[in-house]
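anyone seen this seq b4? input:
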Amino acid sequence: MSLDQEVVIFAGEGEMRALCRALDWSATPLGPVASWTHSLRTTVATLLASRHPMFLFWGPQLVQVYNDAYRPSLAGGGRHPRALGMRGREFWTDTWDIIGPQIDAVMTRGESTWHVDQLVPIERNRRMEEAYWTYSYSPVLDDDGSIGGTLVVCQETTERVLAARRITTLHRLAALRTGDGARDTAAAATRILASNECDVPFALCFLAAEEAAASLLSSDPESIELVHAEAIRDEAGLLAPERWDLRAAFRSGMPRVVGLAGEPGLAGIGPWPEAPESAVVVPLAYPGSAEPVGALVLGLSPRLPWDEPYEDFARAAARDLAAHLAMQRNAAERERLAHALHVERARLEYVFRKAPSFLAVSRGPEHVLVLVNDEFYRVFGHRDVIGKPVFEALPEARGQGFEQIFDHVYRTGEPFVGREVPVKIAPTPGAPLEEHFGDLTFVPLVEADGTRTGIIGHGSDITEYVQARREAERLLRVSEQARADAEAARAEAEHANRAKAEFLATMSHELRTPLNAITGYVQLLDLGVHGPLSDEQRSVLARIDRAERHLLGLINDVLNYARIESGRVEYELEPVLIADVAREVLPLVEPLVQAKGLSLDVRLPEQDGHPPLLVWADREKLGQVLLNLLSNAVKFTPPRRDGVAGRILVELRESSEAPVSQRGHEPEGDAGQWAELRVSDTGIGIPATKHEAVFEPFVQVRSDLTREAGGTGLGLAISRDLAEGMGGALTVESQEGVGSTFILALRRVTTAQGESVDRRSGQERRVAHERRSGADRRDMDVEGSERD
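predicted toks r here
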């Protein structure tokens, strides 16, 4: 896969795409993106493009990839972006006992899973948090038909689950029947609150004596006492009023969080392994009054953040309790307190209205709507529904089975729970129906005396989730067909490339025969076999000879390329003094350098007193590569630029870093043993966008200059193939208008290898290296190149 194809997978905006582009995938078990299977690339591209939260576990190591929509679920605390590219088991240590078996069922047996409002605690914001999810696990098939990974399509429902749980608790608290006294009322209230142990691990109620209530703000609350404690033991040491600094809470009139970290006696309180680390002190004041009459202390969950919804819940609980206490304590103020309770109920109605899922309350057997929330209007359209029967307000709901559901729930009291229920909805009255999907619950509305008076409807519009899952499943099916098409196309390309290589080889041999004949006849004429020649005739023969030699050189390039292309090149690798090869090649180009008025600077290690460098190479092919690089440098370096003579530098140096193409392939013990032969010039340079293109066959970045200087566009393609065939690499560093440096990197012969090289057999040193199979080549338009 080319760099351009890799860019396509992660192309586009978004934080996760940018992180994927920046990540060194070769350092992960997935390896470089170029080695990814078609199925993996398709799945990752689909996941990153989706606006629905998605998470992918891939391969035996379950390497992780996720999208921007999932990223908020990791919250703060450094888990993001660390999760990207990590192994699943190493990352999800907090939840692996839950999700591990589910993922294993998908990876080993292909079993898809579906979970609704599933509790899956997750470590985020530097704590283990209570979190709920609706999600599915689905197998993703790899190119060979095996299960390559697990695709998670999910939606966090924590906010909705917590809101429903707290609304239920507040509804029970609002329906509390006042006891015979303040203690009984407080006991009943704290029992209700502590029964929701996930939000309230323990509850305490402190009340002042009636005569001391008015002095709580102006003096120490010495007369205040604990009237009831729920879910906390006496030995906890938290039952004394002074432990909670109630005066500070009374002064502010606001909820005050008190830390409990390290407090003895809290172990085992609440549903979680962690003990509560804090509690909130909420002043109790009669409705309509700012003067405190006591305080409600609620233990806070160690697995939930203290945020606005949590604070709203604590405030609502304290106000309801205060309203009940007021009604019980002062019969003379019942009318005013009834109004206060109405205000509190209105507040609960506000909480009801702002719930993240749609809610509706109907009354009577006709199911007349009396209360709906904002989300209901968003889903069903802003229409006049209050005071109307459900199926008059929503006529499109008729005939979809909901009449029978409502009648059955109202008549029997049995709740109805439906998952992914299809519903046809008109966004506005009279508009065409649109198909939606919802998780729906209908429960009877039961009054304090046990009678059923209506139905509470609750649901979430999960249309986007269902559509996203279905689209992901469709794309997975499409990817299978695409893989089959790609295999057929690759086979066809391989056949075409083999035919091309065979044609080039045949034509090169056929063309050399008449050219050799031309050479022979020219030599015979020059020798005077057919009579003496004039100077003008000898000049013509010299031009014919030069043209023939030039053409023969071009044909030899094509023939060499065809040999490499067809895999018929063998390499005799042996320790070679690279400086010796350089000294053999340099005299071949020195006349060209002098004729063009260039300077040639050669820097070899032994010139500075360093030992010569031995490399593993095929001596003949090493000389061929170096000669081509020097010829190119001469060819494309002008004699002068801005008054400065053109210059060519040949430099040999050691390197401790392997070339990119050879990293991970060094023999054991050879890491860091490399030599670089660098050929630099002050020539016309290569644009940055063409640095890789110059190594492709027949590609010419500047065809005008190449035609003037001559060449087939194969020299650098052949040179790179030869370099890689010797276990090395050929790269370029260049700036247009400044010059170029071609770098030939070869593996050095270590000291131990040099001592044992004489004991190596010829068979051990012979390496047959096939390069550039037909499938690896791409037909490319001839654009021209400033390099052959």
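Residues 211-215, 755-788 have pLDDT under 50 and may be disordered. Residues 463-526 form the longest helix (64 residues). kinda curious what u guys think
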